[in-house]
Amino acid sequence: MTATHPKTAIVTGGGSGLGFAIASTFVQNGIQTIIAGRDKKKLDAAQQQLGELCIAKACDVSDLASLPGFVQQIIQTYGQIDILVNNAGINMKKDFTEVTDEDFQQVILTNLTSVFSLSREVVKHMLPRQTGCIINISSMAAQYGLPKVIAYSASKTAIDGMTRAMAVELSPNGIRVNAIAPGFIYSEMTAKALDSDPERKAKVFGRTPMGIMGQATDIGNAAYFLASDAAKFITGVVLPVDGGNSIGF
C-alpha cells in the first residue's frame, strides 16, 4: 500500500455515539472512513463534522439482502476495505417474560446476524489481499449478567464467541479480528438514565474501580489501536475498555 492511498474503513452506526467517536479518531489519523447507518440525515450531519475523509452511506444492516450490494458498491468506488468496525446495534429493556419472540429475533438480527453477514461479504474482498482488520463491539452484558436485556446479552455474548472463531479461521490469511467491550461510557443519554436511577448509579460506580465513566474517545482510541500496526500481533481478543468494571467488586 502506497502512502498516497489512505486506508479505507467502514464503521456501522457511525452517525452517533461510539460509532461517531470511532470514525472521528480514524479520520483524525488519516483513515478514509465510510459511516453507515439507517438515518441519512444523522449521517450527513456527522459527515459535515468529520470532513472530507468521511463518507456517509445509508445502509440498514438488518436488511441482510442489501449487504452484498452495499459492499460491492464500496469496493467499486474505493477499491478496497482495510478495516470494518461492526458497531451498529440496538438494545431493548423489558422484563424477561414480556420479551416476545419478535423482540428477541429483532435484536439478534441487528446485533449478531448482520455482523456475520456484513463481515462475510467484506472478508471475501480481504482474503485475496491477505490483509484486513475487523473490530466487533461487544458489551459488559457479555462479561456478567445484566437484568432486563436478555436478547442484548445473548447477542453480545455470541459476538465474543464469533470474534474468537473468526480470528482463528481468518488470521492465517492476514485478517485480524478483535472486539472491544465498552464499560459505562458518558453520554447525555447514559448520564440522564443514571441520574434518574440513583440505585443503579451507585452500583455502576461502586463496581468500577476507577470510579468514573469513560469517554467515547476512549473507545475511539482503542479501536484505532486495534486497527493499527501497533496491534499487528493481536487477534481474537475482547478488550474491555471499562475502568476495571468487568473485574470490579
Automatic annotation (TrEMBL):
GO terms for molecular function: oxidoreductase activity, acting on the CH-OH group of donors, NAD or NADP as acceptor. Gene3D superfamilies: NAD(P)-binding Rossmann-like Domain. Keywords: Oxidoreductase. The keyword Chaperone does not apply. InterPro entries: NAD(P)-bd_dom_sf, Sc_DH/Rdtase_CS, SDR_fam. The keyword Oxidoreductase applies. Pfam families: adh_short_C2. PANTHER family: 3-OXOACYL-[ACYL-CARRIER-PROTEIN] REDUCTASE FABG, SHORT-CHAIN DEHYDROGENASES/REDUCTASES FAMILY MEMBER. Belongs to the short-chain dehydrogenases/reductases (SDR) family. This is SDR family oxidoreductase. It comes from Paraflavitalea soli.
